[in-house]
Write a structure and sequence with these properties.
The structure holds 2 protein chains of 2 kinds.
Chain A: E1 2-13, E2 16-27, E3 31-35, H1 42-49, E4 57-62, E5 65-66, H2 71-77, E6 78-81, H3 93-103, H4 112-122, H5 135-147, E7 153-157, H6 165-180, E8 184-189, E9 200-205, E10 208-214, H7 215-220, E11 226-230, H8 234-243, E12 247-253, E13 256-261, H9 268-276, E14 284-288, H10 292-300
Parallel strand pairs in A: 3-8, 3-9, 6-7, 7-8
Antiparallel strand pairs in A: 1-2, 1-4, 4-5, 9-10, 11-13, 11-14, 12-13
Chain B: H1 2-17, H2 21-39, E1 47-53, H3 58-69, E2 73-79, H4 82-90, E3 96-100, H5 104-111, E4 117-120, H6 125-149, H7 174-205, H8 207-212, H9 218-246, H10 256-280, H11 284-300, H12 313-320, H13 323-337, H14 345-369
Classes of the chains: A alpha/beta, B alpha/beta.
Chain lengths: 302, 370
């Protein structure tokens, strides 16, 4: 069963093509991540799927409802958490929750079991105004408000942007628990390292989907051998590796350089040989498994 | 209906939690009524004047003493040079120069006619008009007095004596006249400023994004957002009216129910204006600037502080479409003259038409911007 079916959807703002002919499906009950840098078109896509924006071309269904024709039905079926904190800052935690429960014609008690795990963390602050909460708490409240009407599918637009690493992990754990309740979760993030928290991901760049699959499948499709290279003079090393005739790509990554070679049967000795002709001390070369970022870089350069 | 109630409850919570709101709602009317009704009068007192007296006669001294004896004029300086006196204009020391030429008394006695020149500082046109009026009255009185004194020489001149009485405000009490107008301004400000800002706020803070994915319908949102200010506006009017009756002893000859009936439709006009402004703007600041710009025009052309009758013809035509002018006139009619329902019926029709146009325009624009 599919929760979301997108067919050739496009949206442009004037001359800027924000979403460019996107097609994909999201299965019921999975955590699906849209991963891409700022301006990749993630928010525009989310806004179309939550009926806030009408696509220029193509169509899509969410939980079987057309996003243009059946927008009213979608609004009761989805929970949406915009990237920007969009609750009433001058209302308390409890009042915000009450308000959103009420407009959906439900009560906090009715769906309490769904938000219980999150709400217990908020409960000590329930009489505090939402504007006075910390970033992590705001995000938890926003999630509670998006969940209070027991949606079938959740759209979370960059929920972890601007949140500290501990809260980020906590947040992903909460999403994991919600998934067990059978709620489909669609999330967007600019952080590559959050890809492994999702079941399937779509890599997005300049309005286009570059790849959609399970993370491990995307990684297994990385076409070349990859090495982590280190030496005493990293900056010189970067330039010299880029000048190497067999070099495919060289990116600095943490404290090492990720180097991919265009030859099929390359070994680390081949590279060592080349580097020994230059003046480098403490050279270390290691063959490594590519990570999501390597894949993203590779797909981008195509 | 239930959804509207939910929104209303939320709105009232937010409004009364806003620190600026309570003072705005309760102190604004008191302060406006106290200050404006006392300050905004058409009366000018202690007008400083200079005298250039080339005649130095009994008559000229008598004329000057008529001026100084009145409550309105204070002698600033006496000199023999018009140029010197003009200096005092530039220094803002006087508003009026009375220039009495030589042979003032002689001409009066022999020819029964004489001349005196009044030079008025007309920097402020309306003030100059008032000074001119006062001065003419004094000279007119002087003419009569002196005419009697010298009547031995002349045949009495037959004249029509004018008696007049001021209806509806016999003592020409400016507060009686100002308070209804200020109440109109007050209600308008509450309606146009606060409502527009309240709608834009959802856009500015981003909460509209969250609201739009809920089953709340557009009309429920609009009613829920505007209704609080309708209620506050009516409450404000009642509060201001009571204040006027108790503190300023303003007469209320007509039926207050007619006032509230008009106000209830009038507020819809103003709220529609606020909503329209909110659809044209993205931030509360922008909304406030536009509302301010429009309201200043409406208030200044609304006949509250300056009579509409003194405007040029084209401006009077524009003023006809100014809801403030209409409501202001109706308020004064009801409060001071005791006009009844039938007398203000045209105003009511006007408001109903205006409200329909304004609201349709605002709702149409509101849909378009979504």
């Amino acid at each position: 069963m599919n929760s979301v079916i997108i067919e050739n959807i496009s949206k442009s703002y004037g001359d800027v093509l924000a979403v460019d002919d996107v097609s994909l499906t999201i299965e019921k009950g999975e955590i699906f991540g849209f991963i891409g840098p700022d301006g990749a078109g993630k928010t525009s896509l989310f806004r179309m799927l939550t009926t806030l924006l009408i696509p220029d071309k193509g169509n899509a269904t969410v939980e079987g409802f057309d996003i243009v024709k059946d927008y009213k039905k979608i609004r009761s079926a989805v929970g949406y958490m915009p990237g920007r904190f969009s609750l009433y800052q001058d209302l308390t935690v409890e009042e915000n929750l009450h308000f959103f429960a009420a407009v959906f014609g439900t009560t906090i008690q009715e769906n309490y079991n769904l938000i219980k795990d999150i709400y217990v963390m908020l409960e000590p602050f329930k009489n505090r105004k939402a504007g006075k909460l910390s970033g992590g708490m705001k995000q938890k409240l926003a999630l509670c408000c998006a969940l209070i009407h027991k949606p079938k599918i959740l759209f979370l637009d960059e929920p972890t942007t601007g949140v500290d690493p501990v809260s980020r992990n906590e947040f992903w754990d909460m999403l994991g628990n919600l998934r067990k309740e059978g709620i489909t979760i669609v999330v967007s993030t600019p952080y590559m390292d959050e890809a492994n928290k999702c079941d399937r991901i779509a890599l997005m760049q300049k309005g286009k989907i570059m790849e959609t699959d399970y993370l491990k499948n995307i990684i297994s499709r990385f076409p070349r051998k990859l090495f982590a290279v280190k030496s005493d003079g990293m900056f010189v090393l970067l330039n010299e590796l880029r000048e190497y005739q067999f070099a495919n790509s060289v990116f600095s990554f943490g404290d090492s350089l990720h180097y991919s070679d265009s030859r099929e049967n390359v070994t680390k000795d081949n590279i060592l040989e080349y580097l020994n002709t230059k003046n480098h001390g403490n050279i270390s070369i290691e063959e490594i498994e590519p990570n999501i970022e390597d894949c993203f870089m590779d797909l981008m350069s195509k | 209906m239930r959804t509207i109630l939910i929104i209303l409850r939320k709105e009232f919570k937010q409004i009364f939690r806003n620190r600026a709101m309570i003072p705005l709602i309760f102190f604004l009317p008191v302060i406006q009524l106290l200050i404006l009704s006392n300050a905004a009068t058409y009366e000018i007192k202690n007008i400083k004047f200079n005298v250039v007296d080339y005649d130095q006669s009994h008559f000229s001294r008598e004329l000057i003493s008529k001026f100084t004896a009145s409550n309105y004029f204070v002698l600033n300086d006496v000199s023999f040079s018009v140029e010197n006196s003009e200096e005092s204009f530039k220094k803002n020391q006087s508003k009026l120069i009375i220039h009495i030429p030589k042979d003032f008394e002689k001409n009066f006695m022999s020819a029964g006619m004489s001349e005196v020149q009044l030079v008025i500082n007309a920097e402020d046109g309306s003030a100059a008009g008032i000074v001119n009026n006062y001065a003419n009255n004094i000279i007119h009185q002087f003419n009569i007095d002196m005419g009697i004194e010298s009547s031995a020489k002349f045949d009495p001149v037959p004249a029509i004596n004018i008696n007049y009485s001021n209806w509806y405000n016999p003592e020409l009490n400016y507060k009686t006249y100002m308070v209804p107008g200020i109440l109109v301004v007050l209600v308008t400000m509450i309606g146009a400023f606060l409502s527009g800002m309240n709608v834009v706020k959802e856009k500015e803070i981003g909460t509209i994004e969250q609201l739009n994915v809920t089953p709340i319908k557009k009309y429920q949102f609009i009613i829920g957002k505007l209704m609080p200010f309708w209620i506050i506006g009516i409450g404000e009017l009642a509060f201001g009216l009571l204040l006027g009756l108790i503190v300023f002893k303003i007469p209320l000859l007509g039926n207050p129910l007619i006032i509230f009936m008009l106000a209830s439709v009038y507020l819809v006009v103003v709220l529609g204006m606020g909503l329209l402004i909110s659809t044209l703007t993205d931030t509360q600041q922008q909304a406030m600037f536009i509302a301010w710009f429009i309201l200043v025009l409406f208030i200044l052309m609304g006949g509250v502080f300056t009579p509409i009758e003194s405007m040029p013809d084209w401006a009077q035509r524009i003023a006809y479409f100014n809801p403030i002018a209409q409501f202001n006139r109706a308020m004064r009619m009801i409060m001071l003259k005791g006009s009844g329902f039938n007398d203000v019926l045209p105003t009511l029709y006007f408001f109903i038409a205006y409200a329909s146009v304004m609201m349709s325009l605002a709702v149409w624009r509101y849909k378009k911007t979504e």
